[in-house]
Amino acid sequence: MAERNEEQDDVHNKRDLKEEKNRARFSHRYYSKSTRRSVCACISIFLLIIGVVALTLWLVYRPIDPQFTVVGAAIYDLNMSSLPLLSTTMQFTIVTRNPNRRVSIYYDRLTIFVSYRNQQITSQVILPPLAHEKRSTVAMSPVLGGGAVAVSLEVANGLVTDQTIGVLGLRVVLLGRLRWKAGPLKTGRYAVYVKCDVLMGVKRGLVGQLPMLASPPCKVDI
């Protein structure tokens, strides 16, 4: 009888031990899941706050694209005596404005060239870095050309025809990279592509400053 009681006690003890282990496992799983939920909730709230702050800053400091306009043009040389090589020297005065009240613009790299009928007719000129402060205007007058550039027969014939007519249409192109700066914060670099279509009065043999017949605001792509 005593042995049977001992066996029953052993069975009860084993059962109690098993139930205690199960409760411990359940409690561990419960607290693990609860901890994971808390961590996920904290991360979600943190990301939400970051998103709201970023959106607020963007709405407050949202940058407006810079504005470019060609206000003056001069041709000092336009030599087509050695076709298909074209030799030319030109100068354009370009005014650029930063319309932003809170954001400055920094051009880390900027190059300029001239094209005619979608073909480049001057070599690219590298411009110095430019810091464009808030609501400021900057004028630059780079000299382009000076070397021979190979052109197609269509371009050569078009230039001759335009000189005969007395009206020459060119495109001034600026390529580079810029950064926006708002307070102590600077963005990454963005590619900038500026196209300025100009229409000038020309006359064969006439060099120097040319009358501007049309110069709409340049198209700026960032």
From TrEMBL:
Keywords: Membrane, Transmembrane, Transmembrane helix. PANTHER family: OS05G0367900 PROTEIN. It is found in: Membrane. GO terms for biological process: defense response to other organism. This is NDR1/HIN1-like protein 12. The chain crosses the membrane at residues 39-61. InterPro entries: LEA_2 (IPR004864), NDR1-like (IPR044839). Residues 97-195 form the Late embryogenesis abundant protein LEA-2 subgroup domain. GO terms for cellular component: plasma membrane; plasmodesma. It is a single-pass membrane protein. The keyword Nuclease does not apply.
